[in-house]
Each structure stands twice: as C-alpha cells, then as structure tokens.
Amino acid sequence: MISQIVIVLFDGFAFGMLLFLLSVGLSVTLGMMNFINLAHGAFGMFGGYVAVTVMRQLGLPFLAALPLAFIAMALLSILIERTLFRRLYKAGELNQVLFTIGVVFVAAAAATFTFGTVQQVIILPDWLRGSAEIGGVRFGIYRAFIILVALIITALLVFGLERTRLGAQIRAAVDNQRMAQGLGLDVERVFAITFALGCGLAGLGGALAVEIVGLSPSFGFQMLVYVLIVVSVGGLGSISGSFAGAALLGIGDVAGKYFWPEIGSFLIYLLLVAILLVRPLGLFGKR
Amino acid sequence: MFWLAALLPFILFPTYLPLASQIAIAALFAISVDLILGYAGIVTLGHAMFFGLGAYFAGVISVRGWGEPISGLLMAGLFAGVIGYIVSFLITRVQHLALIMVTLGLGFLTYELANALPWLTGGTDGLRGIRTWPIFGQFKFDLWGYTGYAYALAVLFLCFLLSRRLVNSSFGLALRGIRENVKRMPAIGADHKGHLRLIYAISASIAGLAGALMAQTTNTVALDSLSFERSADVVVMLILGGTGRLYGAILGTIIFLVARDQLAGINPQYWYFGIGILLMVVVLFMPKGILGFLARIVERRK
Question: Each residue of B130-159: pLDDT tens digit?
Fold first, then answer.
C-alpha cells in the first residue's frame, strides 16, 4: 500500500511537471496582458512534432531535440504574436477565446495534413529507458528525468525573475501594466519576449510529453483543459502558483485514475470548481 | 419570411430532413446560450450540461415506460431549469476567467457523473431502448423524419417567440444593462444577481428542451450530448451568426452545420481547417457576427 502511494505520488508529480512546463508561459502572459490564449497547447503539440521530426529525419539525439523544440516554438510564437495575436489585445475575452480556438483548429488540421493522424512515437536513448529499484519500489527513469528538467527550469525561471533586469521588468508588467508603462518601460517588447519564452517552454514540455501522453493532432485540445485548470487554480502571473497548481493537478489526476478508475476525472473537476468558488483568482492569484 | 423558408426542406430536400431537424434542435440550443451570453454577458463553455440533462431525462423516462413526447419534453425542460437555478447560485459568484472555468468544470463534472452511472445512463454505450409515442397519439415518428422535423421546428418557433418577448421586455433591458456595466446596475436599484439567476435558469430550461427534442427525434442519447465539444460548438455557432440577436443564433447554426455536413463529407480535415479560418476571420473582421456584418452593410447602403 505504502509503495503504491509512493509510486502514485512520483508518477503524479512527474505528470504535474509536464503540465507545469506546458502552462507556465500561459499563466505569465495571461497575468500580464489579460490575453486568453487557448492556442497555447498547440505550441506544445508542434514542439513535440519538431522533436520527433528532427530525431527521425536528421538523426539528432534526444538531448539535442529538446532545445530545438524550445527554439522552434519561441521563434514561431514571435511570428504569430506579431501577425495575429497583437490585434486582439484590446478585444473582449470572448473574442480572444474564439480566435485562439480557431487557431487550435487550424493547427490540428495542419498537423494532420503534414504528419497524418497516427500516434507519433519517440525513441528514447537507452539510458532513459527502464526503471530503477529503490527500497522495493520501481521508479521510471524517464519520469525522474522529466522531474529533473522541470526543477532545473523552475530554478532558472525563479532566478531569472528575481535577479535579472528582464525579470524585474516582467514582474513590474504583471503587477501593474499601466504603471510600468508610465515609468517608461517598453511593455510591448517585454511581453513579446515573455510570450516567446512561454511558448518555447510549451514546446519543450510537448517534446517531453510524447513518451508519456502520446502525440497526435488532437494534442492541442487534450492539453487545453489541463493547462487551463493549472492556470486558473494556480492564479494568473504567478510561477509558484503554476508550480503548485500543476503538481496538485498531476498528482490528483494520477491518484484518481489509479485508486478510483470508475469515476475517472470526477474528483479533479470537483476540486477545480470548489477552489474557484472559494478563491476566484486562484490559490496564488494577486488581482 | 424566414419561418416560411424553414418549411422548404419538406418539399425541396426531403433527403436532408434529418439534418434539418438537427439544425432546428441545435438552433434552439444556440438560442438558449444567446440568452445568457449575448444578452446577459455570461460566457459559458459548459452549457451542454443542460442539453445533456434534458436529453437524458427524456430518454430515461421513455426507457422506463413513459414515451409520450410533449409531456416528456416539458418535464425535461423543467428538470433542466431547476438544476439550472441551483447552479446559477454558483455562476453568479464568479467572473471573467474563473467564470469560464467554473462553467467548464461543471460541464465536465456532469459528463463524468453520467459516465459513472451506467445503470441509469448506459455509460459509454449510451441509452438504449428509447421509444417515443406518436404526437397527440396521431403522428408517428417516421423513418424519413417528416414528423421529427415538424415537431422540432414547432418547438423552436414557440421558444423563439417566447425568447423574443423576453429580451424585449424590461427584464431583457435590465439584462443588457448588466452586460454593459455590472457595477452600475445595483446603483440604480436593480437586483442584478437575481436577474442573472433567473435568465440562467430559463436558458438552462431551453437547453434542456433542445436536448429532450434530440432524444425524442433520434431515439438515442449518448455521452457526447454532455461533451465539451458540444458546448464549444454551440458557442461557435452563436458567434458566427452574431450574439445578442436571436436570428444570429439560428443563422450561425445553419451555416455551421451545413458547412460541416458538406466539408466533412469530402474530408474531415478540411472541416477543421475551414472552421478555424472562419472563426479567425469572423473575430477579426466581423466582431458582431455575420448577421451584424450584414446589418452594417445594409445600413451603409441607406
């Protein structure tokens, strides 16, 4: 029983860390610009496809494919932000929701057209496969790897936000965009950089997720709900909120499906509704 | 004039009658969402909850031996409305992103609940053995859908008239006031939460009617009647046509379902691509939907 709980906590935390990478960018940009980008999961999807393609076509190793997925999605997001999303910052939330849902539809069609509907597989290097036994419990090595990567990224994010000039600008823009602008901050530029960073992280998360949740053109839709729950439960614009929300959701989801498979995701949604009714701004929400 | 055109499928495209009744049902559902989204400003991504509740209610009583359509329809609408009134107390507590997420979460909750109660709902297999008795004991539901379409169209027409009266009343004006400025309404002495709760319950009830219509005309209810896709589709239909206009809900539904029928027949990928592009174009260039866009052109001509 104890070992079951340990393994559920471990697997759930690993899944939560994937969700964290996929959603933290959305949380920060939502907190900054109030832009509800439901297409965020699509960046995760294309990140996954980039990783799969460069490994299969160019024969690059897994560890090289991950940063490539990040860079490709960061660049793509700059292009999309400049051409499309920028026009909608002043539009109402409903229009933003619909426009970005439209983007997800187009992304799904584009992915089907290019890669087909089959589930993509990623071939992990030998050292990431299998599991290690500690105290009678078998831990998946790949899941441990995901946790390690996510913790490093979190440390970098927190360090970057607290210690660097750009971090200070981002925090200022999240807390009070108008005030930051009034003090002469180029909020648009800060936003573009943050947006690219967030989408890059989504791409990285997508690449890491292929082995765990699979990759098909519906990835953007599947992840959308998870990402939105993390963001709304964690609270907008808060990295620690996203982290806590993602860990909670990941563990809750795996535990629910493991111990009570017959009720599926019922508990997660109940928790979501309950938390939002008590704290409409999320656990760590500021405004 | 529009309502006369709605009779055309009987003569011109009898093979499309099942699609036509599907459109009438979806249009009724879209009107229910328009009442809360277009008129009261409640953005919902979980309204299929009430559509599905109505469908399951009508289906379950029919399986248990009561297949009389009109009383079944009314009871299903009442049931969905009562649940809607209870839920409205939660809905009026939250706003913005939290509101979208709470509606989404409640929608998923209902879906999971139906999935977890297979003895009542049939679970993933759907509900089987629904038998709808002839309307007034006279008109049987035929294989080609003549009765089904006439029935669905009649219910749509009645609900449309009702909704039009509602939105043009002082109550409807108060709702628009709430949509435009939530803070100012209490200042002029309007009970804005009470208004919102009432319209939410009415909307839930109409959505329940639409669901019950679907159960009765197709004799099937499956889990997808509660799904997120259905909630999202109906919002998309409404936006395409134009929110805050009852005809917008109907027009959007026709465009959406006919386009899907035609495009998905060629290749489902084209459908996804087409609907995505259509959504983006409508948001960028026609913020008030296709009907709002047309109205503006007509005004310029004058």
Answer: 887 777 766 777 766 788 888 899 999 999
- Flag whether A286 is in a domain: no
CB contact under 8 A, A99 and B95: no
Higher pLDDT pick, A23 / B98:
A23
How many structural domains comprise chain A?
1
Q: Looking at the partner chain, which of B100, B276, B287 has a beta carbon nearest the beta carbon of A103? A: B276
Please give the model's pTM, rounded to 2 decimal places.
Answer: 0.85
The boundaries of the domain holding residue A238 are 1-278
Q: How far is CA B277 from the centre of its chain?
A: 23
Q: Which of B100, B102, B113 sits opposite A266 (nearest CB)?
A: B113
Alpha helices per DSSP H over B64-145: 69-91, 96-116, 118-121
Per the CB < 8 A criterion, the answer to whether B216 and B25 are in contact is no
Contacts of A136 (CB under 8 A, 6+ apart): A3
A261: nearest CA in chain B?
Answer: B116
The CATH number of the domain holding residue A186 is 1.10.3470
Inform me whether the C-beta atom of residue B86 falls under 8 Å from chain A C-beta atoms: no
**Domain for residue A36, yes or no?**
yes
CB proximity A264 to B under 8 Å: yes
Q: Does A5 touch chain B (CB under 8 A)?
A: no
In this predicted complex, what is the ipTM? Answer: 0.79
Q: Is residue A58 part of a domain?
A: yes
Nearest to B212 by CA among B100, B73, B87: B73
Is the residue at A233 inside a domain? yes
Q: Is B100 on the interface with A (CB under 8 A)?
A: yes
